[in-house]
Amino acid sequence: TGLSPIRWGIAGDVRTPGDFDGDGKTDIAIWRSSMTPNESKYWVRRSSDGTAAVAGWGQPGDFAVPAWVVH
Asked: What is the 3-state secondary structure (H, E, C) of the chain?
């Protein structure tokens, strides 16, 4: 495709792609779990403008369930 790969996340992150910005394209996203309250977060790289968004989500011990399209 001529495009360079995009590295997003660190070891242990869960890939959670989806259309988070509503533009009809899949955004690159990961969910990073934390045992510290209020520190589990989604990290999304928006396909519409390439900017990053971070949103806190979940409780200690939660985990993201990736869709079949992730693998």
From this structure: CCCCCCCCCCCCCEECCECCCCCCCCEEEEEECCCCCCCCEEEEECCCCCCEEEEECCCCCCCCCCCHHHC
Write the CA distances from 71 to 14, 15, 16, 65, integer angstroms: 11, 9, 10, 12
Q: 29 - beta bridge partners?
A: 44
32-47 tens-digit pLDDT: 888 787 788 889 999 8
Task: For 29, list phi and psi in degrees, rounded to 5.
Answer: -150, 150
Kindly report the pTM of this predicted structure.
0.71
CA 62-71-54 angle, to 5 degrees, is 45
